[in-house]
From TrEMBL, chain A:
InterPro entries per UniProt: AcylCo_DH-like_C, AcylCo_DH/oxidase_C, AcylCoA_DH/ox_N, AcylCoA_DH/ox_N_sf, AcylCoA_DH/oxidase_NM_dom_sf
Family: Belongs to the acyl-CoA dehydrogenase family.
Stored Gene3D superfamilies: Acyl-CoA dehydrogenase/oxidase, N-terminal domain (1.10.540.10), Butyryl-CoA Dehydrogenase, subunit A, domain 3 (1.20.140.10)
Protein's recorded name: Acyl-CoA dehydrogenase
Superkingdom, taxonomy of origin: Bacteria
Pfam families recorded: Acyl-CoA_dh_1, Acyl-CoA_dh_N
Domain Acyl-CoA dehydrogenase/oxidase N-terminal, chain residue ranges per copy: 8-95
Organism per entry: Dactylosporangium siamense
SUPFAM superfamilies: Acyl-CoA dehydrogenase C-terminal domain-like, Acyl-CoA dehydrogenase NM domain-like
Coiled-coil residues: none
Keywords in alphabetical order: FAD, Flavoprotein, Oxidoreductase
Automatic annotation (TrEMBL), chain B:
PANTHER family cross-referenced by the UniProt entry: ACYL-COA DEHYDROGENASE, ACYL-COA DEHYDROGENASE FADE34
Domain Acyl-CoA oxidase/dehydrogenase middle, residue spans: 107-198
Source organism superkingdom: Bacteria
Residue stretches making up the Acyl-CoA dehydrogenase/oxidase N-terminal domain: 19-103
InterPro entries: Acyl-CoA_Oxase/DH_mid-dom, Acyl-CoA_Oxase/DH_mid-dom_sf, AcylCo_DH-like_C, AcylCo_DH/oxidase_C, AcylCoA_DH/ox_N, AcylCoA_DH/ox_N_sf, AcylCoA_DH/oxidase_NM_dom_sf, Mycobact_Acyl-CoA_DH
Family, similarity comment: Belongs to the acyl-CoA dehydrogenase family.
Required cofactor names: FAD
Acyl-CoA dehydrogenase/oxidase C-terminal domain residues: 215-372
GO cellular component terms listed in the entry, alphabetical order: plasma membrane
Record-linked SUPFAM superfamilies: Acyl-CoA dehydrogenase C-terminal domain-like, Acyl-CoA dehydrogenase NM domain-like
GO molecular function: flavin adenine dinucleotide binding; oxidoreductase activity, acting on the CH-CH group of donors
Name of the protein: Acyl-CoA dehydrogenase
Keywords: FAD, Flavoprotein, Oxidoreductase
């Protein structure tokens, strides 16, 4: 039976990630960093990847990883979502690891150990991809990929082409930072002009599909983390903020909205756990679980962030308050790996509910 | 031995087709395979609750008779856990077996005309009888589902009007065949009468049928109410197992009804129904041992909203057919049926889902206060003696 709970080991992992993030990625630190020349925190990344060893959780120990599973990865994502921490985990530890796991490429060792940051060169908005904007002639690659996550700090880019998936040195490419809607997850446009690539897999389509599906399944856990932070923070705030000589959280209109949000977050947890477990165990229901995860958890995270802003009043609309970072993350996530609507359309095919 | 092994052995020794259904069900109860999480001797084996579904599946696969849970839902979902938790050994042995086998149907005499959401404000009085061996009950209950079928009722009544309302309540088991119990049908929006009014006039209850201490009835009732919410909303089901399955079935069979707008509406509800189902599964995994907490309210809230939205979509989908109905005959059904009959029936019956077992507004209060720790509602009735409350 699918296990939708958290194991003791998972809870221990959560606790160590949470305490690291509390130390190193407090809101002031994140806010100060996002407008600096180094929006991504590579020191924090090294602490996560090397000290805590979470860069390649599902990779067997022999392959440089932690010998755990995607379930543990999802717990790390919950915590990263809670902190909107600017680290290259999504690109490296989700997309690149998922793309490389099926291959026996030696690059996996370094990526899983966190010693070389890699990412998959696809637009972050892609839910599925069948055609490529980069072409390969022999081992020379040309073309442009827009809105690539974590490409700004990556050392290796995994580039899909009609001839297969190639690894290229990031410094050989032209990387233009994008002004990203989500400041804690900077995107980069990547242009390749005759860059030399090393073929990793002849099946780019299959590899990218696997990676994007893992992304969709696991992003739900990050969305859960975002939503939980927004709910908890808002509940605490309305307990202390007083207007008309009583706590604003004592008004029933507010209580009921937060109760409804709690119900949605409770559901999102079950849905995200299901997706992570299906991915970890190779369950044949994974395509449904991943599409369901995005169709459900995307809007919940957005709703939670919107309620967080509204129920904080004016302070929630300021740059100095963290709420806007969560709103931007939630909104961007809703367009990451396909929209909720596109995942509903995918489900229609999967569960035989044709238009 | 495991519950799976015991089930196999039991089925080998008891041919479900040879034995009379009642004898088979009694034997199953005595073997501890009725509800495995209950203690030995009371139909269970003291095992984790989640093992029950595999046991049930094995019995179904063997063609065994079941206890018709839709007929005895109040007994199974509400009376039984309350008796188990608060009853004496003698009470448990007397009531649980015929409750589970379906020999005796139970109903719930909680709500009153003046006490619905504010259940603790109830006015039905129970007064010690002269010789001190029992109680005499007078009052009126309302919306009592299945009272017309019931042999027993769980009842809360006021035993002390001079203390604040939550403190003066006592919990009883009432024999529905006792003199002075009168059951009158109440016709519902669906046309039939699943529920009733129950008038209690000088009804005698022996003190041995009291559940929990005198004045502790509100605490005992919490067990019933928490379990009720899970019983209504938290049932195990396969994907597309609830009303969503009815609509998807229509969708697949009737392509001529499809429109793009309805397609997206259907997919949204499919997603929500599946999320609610997984939430129920996770809730059951969490409470594999122990009692449900206020989280059960989430399942009940979701169940009500989804049933209403899905049944409304079905009517949208059906177009002209939704203008017509099968019949409005006044009947007194013998089972509580959320999914049966027509789309129109489902739509109407679902309206009850957000009222019965605690309204959705009250459940949101419960979630806000007990789960999120938000301040309680301002209230004027907490410290006043019940008799002094404005009525
Ligand atoms: C189909 C059906 C079957 C039932 N079966 C049984 C049964 O077997 N046994 C039994 O005992 N009862 C049964 N009930 C009764 C049910 O529990 C009550 O109807 C319910 O608790 C609401 O009480 P009420 O009808 O008095 O409404 P009221 O409490 O008068 O509520 C009226 C409206 O006010 C709202 N409201 C009340 N208080 C608040 C508040 N503090 N904050 C915000 N809103 C509030 C309610 O949500 C509702 O919308 C059944 C009801 C139905 C519909």
């Amino acid at each position: 039976m699918t296990d939708l709970l958290y194991s003791d080991v998972e809870e221990e992992l959560r606790a160590s990630v949470r305490s690291l993030l509390a130390d190193r990625a407090g809101f002031e630190a994140v806010l100060a960093r996002i407008e600096s020349p180094e929006p991504v925190d590579l020191k924090l990344w090294r602490a996560l990847a090397v000290d805590l060893g979470v860069a390649g959780l599902p990779v067997p120990e022999a392959g440089g990883g932690a010998g755990a599973s995607w379930r543990e990865t999802s717990v790390v994502l919950e915590e990263l979502g809670r902190a909107v921490a600017p680290v290259p985990f999504l690109g490296n530890s989700v997309l690149a690891v998922a793309a490389l796991l099926g291959t026996s490429d030696p690059l996996l060792d370094a990526v899983a150990a966190g010693t070389r940051v890699a990412t998959l060169a696809v637009p972050l908005s892609a839910g599925t991809l069948k055609t490529w904007t980069v072409t390969a002639e022999g081992d020379r690659l040309d073309g442009t990929v827009t809105s690539v996550v974590d490409a700004g700090v990556a050392e290796v880019l995994l580039v899909p082409t009609a001839a297969g998936l190639y690894a290229v040195e990031a410094t050989d490419t032209e990387r233009t930072p994008v002004v990203s809607f989500d400041l804690t997850r900077p995107l980069t446009d990547v242009t390749l002009r005759g860059v030399t690539g090393r073929l990793i897999s002849a099946d780019a389509a299959g590899t990218v599909e696997r990676a994007l599906r893992a992304g969709a399944a696991l992003l739900a856990s990050e969305q859960l983390g975002v939503a939980e932070w927004c709910l908890t923070t808002t509940v605490e705030y309305v307990k202390t903020r007083r207007q008309f000589a009583r706590q604003v959280g004592s008004y029933q209109a507010i209580k009921h909205r937060l109760a409804d949000l709690w119900v949605s977050v409770t559901e999102a947890r079950a849905v995200a756990r299901y997706a992570a477990d299906c991915l970890a165990t190779g369950d044949p229901d994974l395509p449904v679980a991943a599409a369901l995860a995005q169709a459900f958890c995307s809007p919940v995270a957005v709703k939670a962030a919107e309620e967080c802003v509204q129920l904080h009043g004016g302070i929630g609309f300021t740059w100095e308050h963290p709420a806007h970072l969560y709103l931007k993350r939630a909104r961007s996530n809703a367009a990451t790996f396909g929209s909720a609507a596109s995942h509903r359309a995918t489900l229609a095919g999967l569960v035989d509910l044709p238009a | 031995m495991t519950s799976a092994g015991l089930t196999r052995d039991f089925l080998a020794a008891h041919d479900p087709h040879a034995l009379a259904p009642l004898d088979f069900l009694r034997a199953r109860f005595d073997a501890g395979l009725a509800w495995v999480q209950y203690p030995e001797g009371l139909g269970g084996l003291g095992l984790p609750r989640e093992e029950q579904s595999a046991v049930d599946e094995a019995f179904t696969a063997a063609g065994a008779p079941d206890n018709n849970p839709r007929r005895i839902g109040i007994g199974l979902g509400m009376a039984a856990p309350t008796i188990l938790r608060h009853g004496t050994d003698e009470q448990r042995h007397r009531w649980l077996r015929p409750l589970w086998t379906g020999e005796e149907v139970w109903c719930q005499l909680f709500s009153e005309p003046g006490a619905g959401s504010d259940l603790a404000g109830l006015a039905t009085r129970a007064i010690r009888d002269d010789d001190g061996t029992g109680w005499v009950v007078d009052g009126q209950k309302v919306w009592t589902s299945m009272a017309h079928e019931a042999r027993w009722a769980i009842l809360i009544a006021r035993t002390d009007p001079s203390v604040p309302k939550h403190q003066g309540i006592t919990y009883f088991v009432l024999d529905m065949t006792a003199p002075g119990v009168e059951v009158r049908p109440l016709r519902q929006a669906t046309g039939e009468a699943e529920f009733n009014e129950v008038f209690l006039t000088g009804v005698r209850i022996p003190d041995t049928d009291r559940l929990g201490a005198v004045g502790e009835g509100w605490a005992v009732a919490q067990t019933t109410l928490m379990n009720e919410r899970v019983a209504i909303g938290g049932g195990a089901s396969p994907r597309e197992g609830g009303v969503i399955g009815v609509v998807t079935d229509v969708w697949r069979k009737r392509p001529e009804l499809r429109t793009p707008a309805l397609h997206d509406a259907l997919l949204r509800l499919w997603v929500e129904a599946e999320a609610a189902r997984l939430t129920g599964t996770r809730l059951r995994q969490q409470m594999a041992v122990g009692q449900p907490g206020p989280e059960g309210s989430a399942a009940k809230l979701l169940f009500a909203r989804l049933n209403q939205e899905i049944s409304a979509l079905e009517l949208d989908l059906l177009g002209e057919e939704g203008l017509r109905h099968d019949e409005w005959t006044m009947r007194r059904p013998t089972v509580v049926d959320f999914a049966g009959r027509t789309a129109g029936y489902r739509y109407l019956r679902a309206k009850g889902n957000s009222i019965e077992g605690g309204t959705s507004e009250i459940l949101r209060n419960i979630v806000a206060e007990r789960v999120l720790g938000l301040p309680p509602e301002h209230r004027l009735d907490k410290d006043l003696a019940w008799k002094d409350l404005p009525k």
